[in-house]
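User: Um, any thoughts?
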Amino acid sequence: MLEILKLIAAILTIATGALALFSPKSVPGFTGLQPVGGRGITEIRSILGGLFIALGLYPILAASPDGYTMLGWAYLGIALVRLVSIFLDKSSERSNWISLGVEIAFGGILVL
């Protein structure tokens, strides 16, 4: 069961990246980021798109338990920074808390 959950987390990571890559103008709806001009859209496509696709694909294509663990630590790192940022930046918005919950859940599943 845990292996299936890890696979689902990786696939959802790929899907998130694909959304950012192929529909960068939809990203403000779930990140709050507003790309400005071509440069901003390129950043959305490359970082939120390409990086997330690569992070999700690696453990699947390499058939590597270590790949899933690495992805999990990446999510836990993102969660830690998000939690600190919520308080430092006074950004206690519902979407931030939802993202934090997903990141902790994915991170926990993937490092087990």
Remarks:
- Residues 84 and 90 are 10 Å apart (CA to CA).
- Residues 2-111 form one domain.
